[in-house]
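2024-03-11 09:14:02 INFO receiving multi-entity request
2024-03-11 09:14:02 INFO entity count = five
2024-03-11 09:14:03 INFO echoing inputs for audit
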Amino acid sequence: MAWRTHDLESPKKGFKLIVGVPDVGLVGPIAASFLIKSLNLKLIAYFDSDDMPPLLLFHEAKPLLPVRVYGSGELCVFISEIAISPRVMPSLARAIIDWATKKGASGIIALSGIPVPNRIEIQNPKVYGAAVKPEDREFLKKSGIELLKEGFMSGVHALVLKECLVKEISGIALLAEAYMNYPDPGAAASLVSTLGSLFGIDVDVSPLKEQEEEIRIKLRELMKRTVETMRQAGKEYEYTLPAMYA
Amino acid sequence: MAWRTHDLESPKKGFKLIVGVPDVGLVGPIAASFLIKSLNLKLIAYFDSDDMPPLLLFHEAKPLLPVRVYGSGELCVFISEIAISPRVMPSLARAIIDWATKKGASGIIALSGIPVPNRIEIQNPKVYGAAVKPEDREFLKKSGIELLKEGFMSGVHALVLKECLVKEISGIALLAEAYMNYPDPGAAASLVSTLGSLFGIDVDVSPLKEQEEEIRIKLRELMKRTVETMRQAGKEYEYTLPAMYA
Amino acid sequence: MAWRTHDLESPKKGFKLIVGVPDVGLVGPIAASFLIKSLNLKLIAYFDSDDMPPLLLFHEAKPLLPVRVYGSGELCVFISEIAISPRVMPSLARAIIDWATKKGASGIIALSGIPVPNRIEIQNPKVYGAAVKPEDREFLKKSGIELLKEGFMSGVHALVLKECLVKEISGIALLAEAYMNYPDPGAAASLVSTLGSLFGIDVDVSPLKEQEEEIRIKLRELMKRTVETMRQAGKEYEYTLPAMYA
Amino acid sequence: MAWRTHDLESPKKGFKLIVGVPDVGLVGPIAASFLIKSLNLKLIAYFDSDDMPPLLLFHEAKPLLPVRVYGSGELCVFISEIAISPRVMPSLARAIIDWATKKGASGIIALSGIPVPNRIEIQNPKVYGAAVKPEDREFLKKSGIELLKEGFMSGVHALVLKECLVKEISGIALLAEAYMNYPDPGAAASLVSTLGSLFGIDVDVSPLKEQEEEIRIKLRELMKRTVETMRQAGKEYEYTLPAMYA
Amino acid sequence: MAWRTHDLESPKKGFKLIVGVPDVGLVGPIAASFLIKSLNLKLIAYFDSDDMPPLLLFHEAKPLLPVRVYGSGELCVFISEIAISPRVMPSLARAIIDWATKKGASGIIALSGIPVPNRIEIQNPKVYGAAVKPEDREFLKKSGIELLKEGFMSGVHALVLKECLVKEISGIALLAEAYMNYPDPGAAASLVSTLGSLFGIDVDVSPLKEQEEEIRIKLRELMKRTVETMRQAGKEYEYTLPAMYA
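2024-03-11 09:21:47 INFO inference complete, emitting structure
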């Protein structure tokens, strides 16, 4: 379950790392990918493990590992283009935080979705926040982001926050209302807009909404495999309250 | 199967550690959680393992690991808000006893339930006791607690006592009559009352009984997952007598 | 698959170790338990492993590990009150022989059963013998015990003899005609009588026969679990002849 | 998952290594085998692992390991005559690249197929290319080979390119349009022709086409087993676009 | 998957080791056992592993490990009386060759069968040969043994030859036409006769043929278990040709 990292370039000290890994509605990777393309970020690192399926990607004829980091200035984006099995989630979360710490990150922002049954009736999916440090929670609240108050969070973004908590690093999660089992570019658009207003990133999200149907079709296989991983990851706990606060 | 502990604060030397882990009727975590809230105990340590599902909790918007210890003065409470698979039970029991020993605990009290078929007809579930040391058994008897005489005990509380036995530490188990497969706040109330009279802890258990239906609904998922772990843990032995005393 | 031993007291050098582990008709643990009670043997050691189910026993309100050794003078009895899965059989057999050797045992006597289809018609189940050393085989024959001549033996008692063979220790197996899938106190009585006449142990076996039905009911769960382990342990080989002597 | 290599002879420094491992239409091993026979290459190394099935080959009565390397002058060919399970793919890919690097290879060319639904209507299967280094992509384009632009590649050839990418070695993949689940000598012929024109290897491929039906029947079992491995290797991702470029 | 060996006596330097392990028609162990009995060979070593089923054998009331070596003068015979699972085949093959090399063997002869559909019509099953070294192939041909020319060989005997190939030891396989799924003493008789004429071993094989039906019944269980292992061992490859020679 060991992960290897291959650095191509070093990010700027004090950078923020946005993390988008397949989960509810694939909103993490959709938003991460959109940011990378819109902001023209450069590929700076690969993550690799023998426990991943034997896959290589091609983009504009160039080979790419499916799990990698892009960056420019003080913004870096971690993206996985393949589903992560629950078995390797803990080691991946730790590898991400180890890499970020070693490279001098000032904070982590993990993206994901919250499944809502009436998603079809929602025009602008709301974004909820969660944060490890009190000052980050304060910052989110002041910026108008409602905080997740009680309950479970499951997946790589949950483990990323857990590592931040244990290692006392600034860690934020942003979760958009989303379809659970359908790729949801609209929810990803909400995440990107929120990132924009929180961190002053200027990106026009309208293309995400325009290509909704197209994206949905193209991501069928990734969604299918992600659904399987969510089933094994204790996602069902998310719809219940912890014993202590029941 | 290794467990990591993260200490936030040190308990007071000579403290007693109450252990509530999901099992019969979830009485352990329900009672543990009620004690933590009623006595306003402080979070003092996390337990973590890569063999646990990828979950993080939130309470009042603050992130929490699902397995942790609270304490104040000479009372500490260990609680797990997620089911423990039989595969990791031995290492968890050992991690609990190792942590308690290192921190200077004077004794362990593990909480659980004894399933009774006629639970529905019982107003005040009776609490049975078990103890590793003769003086603790004497203390329980004098306090009016009937001792478990013959039979098997299965689960994390059984392994916690086993570690106490092998390492010659004071270990007590308190087991309330309970529903096996339904969250049982009434049985948890009996445990809390018993703890109160045994150790002079002053807590009003009436809220536990009033919120019975509410708690039952909220803990559905945890109960469901706990039932699965009990099936794998040799719980069936509990309803038989050991060969030697047959 | 490692086993830990916890010694409470040391046996007398030159002691004989009787081994009773769940197998055909549970005759091993039934006979072992009867000897321990009849001869009033003292608990002297525990055997423990993380690969065993998470169980603790209680007897007269005292906690006990399910796998342990009793002894007095030159007689020790090893008993397991739970079924042993084939996966841990080799390490257990080795742990038994290592412990016995370290403590200065002069010989091992493993108890088990031979399933016979017409058991119901047999009043006094016959006891067969097997031994690693020629002098032990001679002793058995002289004492009127018919030796097992050709065939396979499967289970912990087979592996215990194997370790004796490889390490050149005196090892004997006594096998009573028994029901395969029903607890068989009558067969256990035959074993105890045989032990009595072979080693001058004076025990009245009539209680075993009188409590037959009672014992059978109490050991249902242990029998059920033992049947599963026998199915995985290559027991079927026992009803065939080895190729070499076919 | 360790691989052992047994060298019989050393290849010439600066050699190119062609890799043919069972995958889509078995085009890799069919082309590799045809090259070895046509160019009369010599056996120079074996690859072996305990995770492979217990098989030995015979050719002209001489025993051969199923995974091996042939070579002459500056051309070496790696061939596996048995299906590779996804579990051992990463270690095999790394073993190939480690061996090639140690022996002084100047580049790797991995052969495989791209399944096309209308294969039956195609007379001359087209060959697509992929390359790790820009100069190799340029070379392929100049030679009239269309590059694979967007998408996933799955299997040993994908992992071989990944290792080349990470270790900055020249790595090329050539992929012929092929039947997915039928051995496809016609597609293999296209690969051999392409290798011929790219690297000046002079081989007449007409025998491959003439023996098409014969080869298909003989390779049934290898194809059957390869289909199973492809199902587990995330091949389905290949028919979708990565999230980032959707 | 480690194997332990226990030596009782040392074979004579330069000895030949005949290997009979359960496979097609059980011809290996049947022939091995017949040789041991006919030539009155002495038990000289045991092979043991925790990955084998928990079995011990008895012959003439003496305990025996199921995997062992017999010998006298320059002839040794390795026999396994239980089926070998594919998972432990590689380590067993290596343990055999390591033991043989350490003891100074001059060559290995592995026995097995080749399943033929019309076995019932064959009076005298033909014996095919295979050998690692050219001089051994020459010897077989001169002695009138037809060599296996093209194809796969699967099982412990295949791996034994593979180890001989890799370590440059003289290794021969003799394979008799046989029933795949029925014990085949007739085929074993052919093997023994061939061994006789090749190495000047004088044995009358008529008892093998006379006890055919008896042996078949006695070896039912071993055959049943062997069939299962063959199914997992890639035996199906044997009925196809390698890609390279298709």
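2024-03-11 09:21:48 INFO post-check: Helices of chain A lie at 27-38, 89-102, 134-142, 156-167, 185-199, 206-210, 212-218, 220-232.
2024-03-11 09:21:48 INFO post-check: The longest strand of chain A covers residues 107-115.
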